Amino acid sequence: xxxxxxxxxxSTGIDHAIIDVGGVGYLVGASSRTLAALGPxxxxxxxxxxxxxxxxxxxxxxxxxxEERDWYRLLTHVQxxxxxxxxxxxxxxxxxxxxxxxxxxxxxxIARANGxxxxxxxxxxxxxxxxxxxxxxxxxxxxxxxxxxxxxxFAADALSALQNLGFKPYEASTAVASAEAELGDDASLDAxxxxxxxxxxx
Length: 202
Prior knowledge:
By secondary structure, the protein is α+β, with helices and mostly antiparallel strands. It has helices at residues 32-37, 66-76, 83-92, 95-103, 107-110, 118-132, 155-164, 169-183, 189-200; strands spanning 4-12, 16-21, 24-30, 44-53, 58-63. The protein has a 5-stranded mixed β-barrel with strand order 1-2-3-5-4. α7 crosses α8.
């Protein structure tokens, strides 16, 4: 299974990118949000991937952040949400916005995505609400009341570590952002994960 690609951005299209890894070009489907985050053609990129295996095809879907990939997995487990609809939702909403919409039962927010009607939006809320838990009280708040995302060099690895230990995407990002704010951007990965774990476990 291909879980991550690290190489050069060869080209992008409306709904995909081609990543050159050692001379091999991988076609990766992606949300508009991920495509915008990749940067200019020719630059080095790291992209988290989900490999879709069907009877007649093998496809890769890519994400700029592990958190976005985790939401893709959650969404595609909802009846009626295929890969295309999940990417449309992730194009319309940041993972934190999506978490808030699901936790608060805001189906209108989810229905902003192309191809998502009120009934499907309600099903997404109903099926995912218990899986993600409520938005934690006292989370770091940024502009417009949206929780701050961790941004340091080890943030993505720390996020992935916490989520692999079973923490929800929102819980992990909140804990890592809080730990990062306390330790500073130059904190080691080990220190960041240890402090984030303590904060997430409270």
